[in-house]
Predict the 3D structure of the following.
Amino acid sequence: MCAEVLLRTKDQFIGSLRDGRTVYFKGEKVDVTAHTFFDPVINHLGIEFEIPENPQYRDLVTFSPNGKDRYSRYFKIPQDSQDLLARSCIIDLGTRLGGTVVLLIKEIGTDCLFAFNIISKQMDAKLQTEYFKRVSNYHNYCMKNDLAMAVAQTDVKGDRSLGPSDQEDEDYYVRIVEEKSDGIIVRGAKAHTSYGPCANELIVIPTRNLSEKDKQYAVAFAVPANAEGVKMIASPFGGTTRSEFHNPISSSHHMVESLTIFDDVFVPWERVFMKGETQFAGPLAVTFVQFHRFTAISYKAPILDLLVGAAILVAQMNGIIDASHVREKIARLIAYSETVKGLTRQSALNCRKVEETAVPDPVYSNIAKWHFASNYHQHVALVQDLTGGLTVTGPSEEDLKSPVTGEYVRKYLAARRGISAEDRLRVINLIRDLTASDFGGYNELLQIHAEGSIEASKITLLREYDARPCVDLAQKLAKVKASSF
Amino acid sequence: MCAEVLLRTKDQFIGSLRDGRTVYFKGEKVDVTAHTFFDPVINHLGIEFEIPENPQYRDLVTFSPNGKDRYSRYFKIPQDSQDLLARSCIIDLGTRLGGTVVLLIKEIGTDCLFAFNIISKQMDAKLQTEYFKRVSNYHNYCMKNDLAMAVAQTDVKGDRSLGPSDQEDEDYYVRIVEEKSDGIIVRGAKAHTSYGPCANELIVIPTRNLSEKDKQYAVAFAVPANAEGVKMIASPFGGTTRSEFHNPISSSHHMVESLTIFDDVFVPWERVFMKGETQFAGPLAVTFVQFHRFTAISYKAPILDLLVGAAILVAQMNGIIDASHVREKIARLIAYSETVKGLTRQSALNCRKVEETAVPDPVYSNIAKWHFASNYHQHVALVQDLTGGLTVTGPSEEDLKSPVTGEYVRKYLAARRGISAEDRLRVINLIRDLTASDFGGYNELLQIHAEGSIEASKITLLREYDARPCVDLAQKLAKVKASSF
Amino acid sequence: MCAEVLLRTKDQFIGSLRDGRTVYFKGEKVDVTAHTFFDPVINHLGIEFEIPENPQYRDLVTFSPNGKDRYSRYFKIPQDSQDLLARSCIIDLGTRLGGTVVLLIKEIGTDCLFAFNIISKQMDAKLQTEYFKRVSNYHNYCMKNDLAMAVAQTDVKGDRSLGPSDQEDEDYYVRIVEEKSDGIIVRGAKAHTSYGPCANELIVIPTRNLSEKDKQYAVAFAVPANAEGVKMIASPFGGTTRSEFHNPISSSHHMVESLTIFDDVFVPWERVFMKGETQFAGPLAVTFVQFHRFTAISYKAPILDLLVGAAILVAQMNGIIDASHVREKIARLIAYSETVKGLTRQSALNCRKVEETAVPDPVYSNIAKWHFASNYHQHVALVQDLTGGLTVTGPSEEDLKSPVTGEYVRKYLAARRGISAEDRLRVINLIRDLTASDFGGYNELLQIHAEGSIEASKITLLREYDARPCVDLAQKLAKVKASSF
Amino acid sequence: MCAEVLLRTKDQFIGSLRDGRTVYFKGEKVDVTAHTFFDPVINHLGIEFEIPENPQYRDLVTFSPNGKDRYSRYFKIPQDSQDLLARSCIIDLGTRLGGTVVLLIKEIGTDCLFAFNIISKQMDAKLQTEYFKRVSNYHNYCMKNDLAMAVAQTDVKGDRSLGPSDQEDEDYYVRIVEEKSDGIIVRGAKAHTSYGPCANELIVIPTRNLSEKDKQYAVAFAVPANAEGVKMIASPFGGTTRSEFHNPISSSHHMVESLTIFDDVFVPWERVFMKGETQFAGPLAVTFVQFHRFTAISYKAPILDLLVGAAILVAQMNGIIDASHVREKIARLIAYSETVKGLTRQSALNCRKVEETAVPDPVYSNIAKWHFASNYHQHVALVQDLTGGLTVTGPSEEDLKSPVTGEYVRKYLAARRGISAEDRLRVINLIRDLTASDFGGYNELLQIHAEGSIEASKITLLREYDARPCVDLAQKLAKVKASSF
């Protein structure tokens, strides 16, 4: 492996965030590299840059398009199932090393680049545009500079029962407010941009199908995070405790989302990837989502494993591992976990080739997503059930360490022979942090809403599923003539 | 209504907590009436003492045993279904005024007094003891002084697969370590004592069936919260934010639990309600639970109503109230809520009279408890689904109020015409506080574990259900002879 | 009890069916009192007439409107919760004696009479019609002659996405084709009329809301089952085996439904209860359904008890009653059963008085119906799981009795000590008949579709539920102003 | 493809069943090739022999071990995932051509041969026996003669809470009653032997782990179906109607099971594959099951497709395909179907090599089995819900064809424009036959019990799952030392 790995270090990444960007936290402008709230976020994202330095992972997480230089494998346009499986694997790896919290600064961005790759070719073919060249240049730019990218897709939407042009405020969906000789001016806001405040690039795409009258809303582009007019209001939710004991995960691993405002931001032509092509807005949104739902289910594996592992660990500690109802619960957790993981692999294995790009099978990725999202809470409940009420009624770290109370805590909260009170509390704290805390609540919402809602998964499934063979079988057995389907 | 209401005021209650009791919080001894953590707890409990001052509620929440003085109705030993329905009603009322957080300082204590009332009569009849007199005196003492009572039942248990006498540490279950001429000395610890640090009295009962060799563990008694040797380590979990905007419920309504240590505490004879009668330990535990599960399901009504109301409110705000999948979710929430509430009333209506006391029907109370507990998370998921990702990715109160960001928040996060961003965020914050926060996590654990686990409900149900008529019907229709059941 | 009971005997009932009616079975006209298919139906319905002859039941199942003569209690217009509970009780009794198969010849008819009673008063008040008098006379006529009534409500509907007037064939909904001086001529067909071929009277009502243009479809009336032009095509499904051993229930208890055709049938004015009042078509349909869903959930009790009883019996026989997973399954069956039964009583207890008639609470009746219908299959699966594969792979009655095979069957299929192979097979046969046979399949469809579909229950629930207090609570806690609901 | 295909024709297969075998049906000895009950069974099994004659399928369903002769691919000992996927594919094909009813005369037999292959090698290695040679010879014998094999595993068991040696009757498990110079004599009975009466060979293996004292029960062997002393009592359940219209599947596709009695049957040594090696009884049973559960989930694909197809077809006919709740139901059916199918492929892809044989991954096969079995009834309910009550209340074929009633049926039961009453009834009949009939009930039991119960799947899953990485992750994040697992 003599090729040179051209990736940034963690320090380079952190340094790149000191670029004058406008990020607000609790009403004030902040430097994300020097603010306690952002500490665990930045450190967490740093993992992305540490992984390739580990010889054990280097080959897995990099690739060489020309046999010479090695870049982050995220940028490799998937050619087949193996590429998708490898991609799934590195998403899993990063999330696992990130304490089950996804590192979403290359995954989501490249999901979007892959969608641009496909749709730009289709636009060029149909409309004689020249988007593919721009897309390709931008892809190489990000790859060669090893950039962190956020994707801003979800418009704030106003009244959800109305389309963009019919809203009370025409800025409820991001739109082109002016076209200039060298580019466009955009205005609007996107909700919940994951890691926006800590990315180098913001990539913006439409969130839905658009009709002809929505022309100004059919816009896709990329801007640096410090572009003039870009303002990010970071959300404070999801857990801010800094006790490693009480919050073993969230004290050092944390996402951040922003309400991302485009206050008349200029975008030069080479960074504009859609401008008014309303008929391609829906396909772009859908294609992005096809890649992104596959990312979504790939990064669930670590949290699924953790639910299984935590359940077994706490049941062992509590001395109930052999009880029949406990075994039933653990079996259900395993089945839940492996069903999602198995269907994820099926999505890679059943991929289809579109515009020379391997697209994960949307039937399996959406079933996996739906299965995961609609059953998450119930499986969290199983783990909480095994853990016991002490999860929220137990003593604090300070009680354990205090000279006046420590002795009582150690005496009375020891569990099964050989398990100290401290170890028991550590396991309980892990489970509370993961499932029954600000961070746990964040997780619940994430499972339901991130990468598309449960309803969206069903709609996609119905649209993508080829039910023809099923209906044929029914018609054949019923001995009726083929009706229109 | 000329009878005099002899209840304490909120101030009298608070004053009574300044009695030298030993409460630890984060490793240090604290005065619960003068500590910010306890503020919302104390204020919340104060509601219990404000309710009777409201003429609208006075008759409902008080009763007059002698036609002259009026006491808290909680102390009325239920005679029939109507008494149980009234009791259910005042539990609901207090919880509702308490923002869905139960006020558990008279409910649980009287649940236990009712159990003492029944079991003491049975012990006296069978063993020629004189417990009933003690119990009766103590009941009157608490009633006349309008005391707040906590019940400490769950021992810390050590290895759950072993009985009390077989543990590595013989103090894993509370026990009598010495018998003196004027009383007993007890040692041990009880886990998760609800409101222990804010109660006047601690009532202690066994947590399980005991065998003959567990004689020293067959002990029930009451001590004042400031009794020498009683040490309470308060748990810090369940949400400590003090922002009314971000945490509209938990910032002003809060429970507290303690690990309650009995460090060789003396109990005089008149406060000892069981001493070595192992064969009655199980019945006492069970009888308490029969009352307490009824309390449990009675105080769920407000949170059930809130889930329904919040779901409708947020769906209206988001403009999706007429969508078919939204209607399905709301219908499921209503059915969930009313099933629990309807079965609760059935438990009161099907009560049985034991020792001149109306005991709620355990079949219906346990089905209600099981239905509630095993479906809570799934219904929380429905509400979160309707609310949207903004629940954990939205801006803070400070962002809304800041001169630099407020304008963006107000512009972009307004919802359906007529709904301001502030109102929208308030509704979202309510739902996050209730379901996706430290407090929400606390709620999830509470639903599963408080008043007995889900497994305990099933066991009770199987034990209490009279399946004879069902088996008879099956045998009759199968035309087989009655086999032993 | 000196009043005279004026009810018909079973023989009188059977005799009354020999009235020249036109019933087809498998393409041929038949005499229902002399056809093997109808034998178990007729014998089953006879139970309705035998019950009042039993002194144990007489008071329960009859009532005396004038203190002198006693009629079937079914005809008593409910005045309060007690009347509804008594009605529920006699529905349960008849079904229980009928081997879990409902006797639906007075229940459904009186459900409809009660709806006529309410709606006729409302029509008279609003439209100055004189329907109430006709309704009242007809009610008395049926009561005094102790008639068996079927209700034909569900039109055949054609394309379900279109209304009556928009159908390809204007006869897809029953309609008035001609108005004469002495009455009307009706045409059309109603699907699945329960017990139509064995009733004395057919009562016809609209199946849905109608718009102004559907005037000819707004028709309600009653005709004798032998009216000229009435033709009933009886359905052969639901099990026709006549082996008491293999089909212990369905060999002697059986419903029958018909496709009921009105081939230009004349109805005299005194039997016409709606004619063109389109605005009352929906209310009549809904009011009937409010009574009928209460009937529906009342007659589920015996089959619920049987599922519980059969599960226990077979688990005992198989020697697995103490296995943890078996106990879990039985607990779930009990909870399922008692939830439906408890909610049924709540529906009676929460009744509302409309036009001097106690109407069962639709919130509880629909939740009960929904809970029952949407969970039936899953609970059947539990019973089948406990029973074992032998249910469909075991030997026949003839094998048991044959001299060549009987010995093997008796030797090898004996179960736990003391349980003979014959008894074991009887229990298994009961479960197969109930759940895994033509009759079992009939049951599954009945649970889902009879008395309104699952979707209909949800729609009714949403319409009838007063969510105002829930929304108020949410608004109060969120501190937002009341928005329109 | 010049190699010669050495498979039997359908006629040769049927002829081979006229071998004097002892099969009883309804208490009498019958010739299975000349009895109306067996007609659809024999014709159905004939498909197995017709498939290879179809050039489209020939390569898929045959293989050539020596590059010369081609035999049924079922006999190919799987070497890798591809072999397992091909095996899964031909099981699916046969079942699909068999109207969703599995052809189980080569599948199950070869599942057992593969298990013999593995276990015999292990026995030989450990115990210096020479079983592998016998097994190998027998495998070749069956392959070369293209035999139909049934497997008899499930003993009748008596009291399930007792082991073989502790039963009241020592014949409750098949056992060796005598050892002779040239072989053994066996006695006992096996329950539900699929297709036993129509197989050429009966292969017998133990059903469970055995302890040292159960030596006489540790027996595995094969006998021809006409061996002296073998008596098969065929079960009559699962649907016997012969109307193609009413029962489009079960009238021509049917399984048959027998209670198979070994009345002192002699087995020569070369057909004895285990004799007293108690420690290998469990492994043999388990290894067979590992192959057989994979077979099980492979043959579910056609019925899953049919549920999806029938649901779509009937929803289209009823004109409700676009209703939101209908789409939800169809999406759920698709997800159910594809989850099982996807996990099945994962089981093949994750296979492990044992004794040079590819064994399907038991984690995925058991999750697939569990998912299928525990959700089948609920998905059947969805299809029944979409179909409507007419499923069990509609007219018969004779009504449709009768000159007196046919016209009414055709007029009134036509559905959406263009769908005739006959076509509508055909679709409804298909669904009734599949889900709500004797055959439908048979299916329900089959899904739960065939190839091992739901509980068995959970036990296997827990035993086979490697939870170590999950527990490691939990320990790492909780920062506790590795405890024993």
